[in-house]
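Usage

Read records sequentially. Each one opens with the input sequence:
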Amino acid sequence: YGYLWWLRGDGSYRASGVFGQGISIHPQQGIVIALHSARPNASTPEDSARQEALFTALAGALTAEADR
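and closes with the structure output:
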């Protein structure tokens, strides 16, 4: 965690906002994923886990597609 960014062990980093907003940046793959959201309530730990899984799956799929 550094300056409101979550630093990942693989060189990527993420920012998480309230109500489900978030950004996931993967510089080595040239991938930026931005999630705009307007949930009615602030994020819960379960919401954060789902967002983490979404970012991981999207980055993995985009990387696999680029490697084809």
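Summary fields computed downstream for this record:
- The chain has a mean pLDDT of 88.
- The two ends are 33 Å apart (CA to CA).
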